[in-house]
Design goal:
6 helices; Topoisomerase I, Chain A, domain 4; signal; 140 residues; mainly alpha
Length: 140
């Protein structure tokens, strides 16, 4: 009985340390990418939710930068999610977003450009606090 337990443990150790086939490594990387992308989307949503909750004038750039920064730090999947997800979430294309911002919300192309700058800053690893307005509660 002890011999079989030793053989089973040896097989387990050898299998665990053996090099995995390329297809298995690819599947593992794909799974990590999807996990990172989902986490990045969650980071972006949390920043959006915080922005809506804070309702603080001039803080939108901070939340844009923070959401992108948090998502991009997760890895390639999170960086992909940060590039793909747009603000607001229901308007995925930048042309539609610009039209919405200039026509409905009263904000124009200059504000959109500043939002995109904050997004790029966060995605590139820049400190989101660059855009943090004075007086924003520390909770955020």
């Amino acid at each position: 009985m002890r011999l079989w337990i030793c053989i089973a443990l040896l097989c387990t150790v050898l299998c665990a340390s053996a090099e995995r086939p390329a297809i298995v490594q690819g599947i593992i990387r794909a799974g990590q990418f999807v996990r990172d992308a989902a986490g990045g989307a969650k980071d972006m949503y949390r920043a959006y939710k915080d922005m809506r909750e804070a309702n603080y004038k001039g803080a939108d750039k901070y939340f844009h930068a923070r959401g992108n920064y948090d998502a991009a730090r997760r890895g390639p999947g999170g960086a992909w999610a940060a590039r793909v997800i747009r603000w607001p979430f229901l308007l995925p294309h930048s042309d539609a977003r610009e039209h919405w911002q200039s026509g409905v919300s009263g904000r124009g192309a200059e504000d959109t450009r500043a939002d995109q700058e904050a997004n790029a800053w966060g995605r590139s690893g820049g400190d989101p606090n660059r855009y943090r307005p004075k007086g924003l509660p520390r909770k955020y």
